[in-house]
Amino acid sequence: MTTTHKKTIVACALFAALFSTASHAAIGDALVASGGNVFITFEGTDAGYDSLISVNGGAEIFPNHSTSVGSTVDLGFFAAGTVLDISLHVLNTGNFWHTGAGAGNADGIEHANVVYNFNGDAGRTYVGFEDLFGGGDRDYNDHQFSFTNVANPVPEPETYALMLAGLGALGFVARRRKAA
Ligand SMILES: [Ca+2]
Ligand SMILES: [Ca+2]
Prior knowledge:
Layout lengths: L2 H17 L10 E3 L3 E9 L6 E5 L16 E7 L4 E2 L1 E5 L5 E3 L13 E4 L8 E6 L13 E6 L1 E2 L5 H23 L1
Antiparallel strand pairs: 1-5, 1-11, 2-4, 2-10, 3-6, 6-7, 8-9, 9-10
Helix pairs in contact: 1-2
């Protein structure tokens, strides 16, 4: 086997390790960063429809047309790594839309735009929902809010182990090339 082949195999293993994280947390998932309370702040609305949100099946909060921007609610304690499933209840249509992959929604598309490190704050994650079936105008600003103590999904420990193994293999190939 040539060095080029070995490098290709290692590169493939690294890519596989990186993509394997997708099976643990979908794009748009929000994970609690560390054990502790999570606070949610209303960031505004640009919608004709009335809507409410709830987190992990909790009480519906933040009616979009009667909540002041900056209003904050303490959602209570969550364990580190908890995936927050935020649902948007659109009162005019009866639709419920969820954060995470499109498969979790009746129309099969993603309804939440998630921005980590919101406004340069490493501990704050922003979510903006699209409220229309099929995505509508896809402006994702129909119901907006942000969380503290919520971070970008991180690779699982076994993924780090795979990546380290890949780096080790690269080092081995480099040493072999130097010796040759
Ligand atoms: Ca809008
Ligand atoms: Ca919209």
